[in-house]
Amino acid sequence: MAYGGSMDIRIPTAEQPLTVSGAAKVLKGSYAALSVDAAALQPLEIELQAILGDDFEELKGHRDLRDGADRYHMTIIEPREFRKVTRELKQAGSKLELSKSPIRFAVYGVGTASSEGRSAWFAVCSSKAMAGWRESLGLPVKDLHITLAFGAEGDVHGVPKGMQTLISSTTTEKD
Q1: Bridge partners, 127 (sequence order)
Q2: Closest of 86, 125, 133, 120 to residue 109, by C-alpha
Q3: Contact, 59 vs 150, CB < 8 A?
Q4: Distance CA 131, CA 152 (A)
Q5: Can you give the residue ranges of every domain in the chain?
Q6: What is the per-residue pLDDT across 88-125, written as a single tens digit (0 to 9) for each?
């Protein structure tokens, strides 16, 4: 979807993040995530289109094929962690409880990361609630993010996706 025109949509920054909420879910039976409304991410997609220019549709298309065009999520427990946590909870006679209420989090802007010939662009996020929940489960601190686009080679995993990865269309040189 191409964006343009004179929309009055505020692009989030590290100093003025957007506040968004999502519903906690188990996806594909193998990881926990917050399901996020696509409309809430429209300012980020506008920013990403300005950053990527003519490559936007193709790179976003790879993410759309994997996740669905209007489906966005923020992984809060990765598959490897999910297996470990659910196994430990089962052994303790318990099970993983997800919040039934929407969970609020901050979105700071578009970040990018590359590894092993792959590149990805994502919304850089944070959530005190999710950080505390992960800690209560014995999980390490995680750079929360929502993938917006990636190259044909696939998404990038296992690299930092925190505040240090933020980029801006106003400071990104275009070809």
Answers
A1: none
A2: 125
A3: yes
A4: 31
A5: 18-165
A6: 999 999 999 999 999 999 999 999 999 999 999 999 99
